[in-house]
Amino acid sequence: MHSVPVGGSVDRSKRLKRHHSLHRAKPSPDKQKRKMASYKVEQLPSPLSVLGEGPHWDVERQSLYYNDIYGGSIHRYDYAENKTYNATIDGFPVISFIIPVKDNERHFIIGTDRKVTLVDWDGRSEKATFVRTVGEVEPTMEDNRFNDAKVDSKGRFYGGTMRLEAKGDIFEMRLGTFYRYDAKQGKFVTLKQKIGVSNGLCWNEAGNLFYYIDSCDLDVKEYQVDANGDISGERVVIDFRVNGERPPFVPDGMTIDANGSLYVATFGGSTVYKVNSKTGKVELEIKLPCEQVTSAAFGGPNLDILYVTTAAKEFKSPQPAPAGALFAVTGLGVKGTPMYPVDLS
């Protein structure tokens, strides 16, 4: 992500405990189930990212692509080799996302400032090269940048912007906008305005429901998706506030499993929350050995490994190793849904 953990760390366990009680009138069965769930967290061989983000599992290449926003790099974790390949692109010190392009195994789109940029990379070399600018939003808003972005099952790009962290507290101003890109018309379509930090996004397997996080809203919202890809019918799935107060984290990136449960990364919370998308109940707390958990994506040969990105950048307090590492979570007993390349045709 990009954000500053909010709230103190002293009362974190107490506040989280209070938060969970909001979702369960009779906490004991769910609580016991969550505690007993067996999963394994493994650090993978990869560089420690300044601000790791954007995990995208490519089924064909059996690889996880992700980016380091302020490290200015793109990465490919090769499942078979258990090795991560890293590259930079000259002239692009900040990279917000990376998504493979349909029908061209060397082409990827990346987020650069407020642009969607096409690059060429063989997945192994230490340098990728600029091809062209696909499109640009908010040309006069120099204090903004793209943040999280993903592609739906029809190959349509969705992504949003935020004010740069260096410009002040993320909760101060809502200057971001959430878009989809119409490749045939070559234009961005505005879906939602007055965004604080445009962040986690995912669709259910049928593609008719869309889930979205504006980190500054401290919640996850559900929308219905029409044939054009536009969204409507906003519903709050889960609100992470505790008695109206901010929790000691902000929700960041997000993914979904084949059963429709959401996996919400918490920046400042050392946790990925598994959330029932229908009831809003927290079904599992997946604990990571670092505070700034940024995003998650299912991958692996059976789509049953949850890959998690993290950040080492010091926003409010030092982040010792393994902060910034890439992690694999196994033993969750669920499968994810496929991720898709972008269709620029």
Automatic annotation (TrEMBL):
Please state the protein's primary subcellular location: cytoplasm
Gene Ontology cellular-component terms for this entry are:
cytoplasm
Which stretches are tagged as biased composition: Basic residues? Answer: 14-37
User: Where does the chain bind a divalent metal cation?
Assistant: 53, 199, 252
Q: Where is this region: Disordered?
A: 1-37
Task: Give all residue intervals belonging to the SMP-30/Gluconolactonase/LRE-like region domain.
Answer: 51-311
Tell me its family.
Belongs to the SMP-30/CGR1 family.
Please give the cofactor(s) recorded in the UniProt entry for this protein: Mn(2+); Ca(2+); Zn(2+); Mg(2+)
SUPFAM superfamilies in the record: Calcium-dependent phosphotriesterase
Task: Give the GO molecular function terms.
Answer: calcium ion binding; gluconolactonase activity
> Where found in the cell?
Cytoplasm
Q: Does the keyword Thylakoid apply?
A: no
Q: How is the cofactor bound here? A: Binds 1 divalent metal cation per subunit.
The reaction(s) catalysed by this protein are:
D-glucono-1,5-lactone + H2O = D-gluconate + H(+)
Q: What positions does UniProt annotate as the active site of this protein?
A: 252
Keywords (alphabetical) are:
Calcium, Cytoplasm, Hydrolase, Metal-binding, Zinc
InterPro entries reported in the protein's UniProt record: 6-blade_b-propeller_TolB-like, SGL, SMP-30
Query: Which EC numbers characterise this protein's activity in its record?
Result: 3.1.1.17
- Which PANTHER family does the record match to this protein? MIP34848P1-RELATED (PTHR10907:SF66), REGUCALCIN (PTHR10907)
- Single Gene Ontology BP annotation: L-ascorbic acid biosynthetic process
Q: Which residues bind substrate?
A: 145, 147, 165
- What protein name is recorded for this chain? Regucalcin
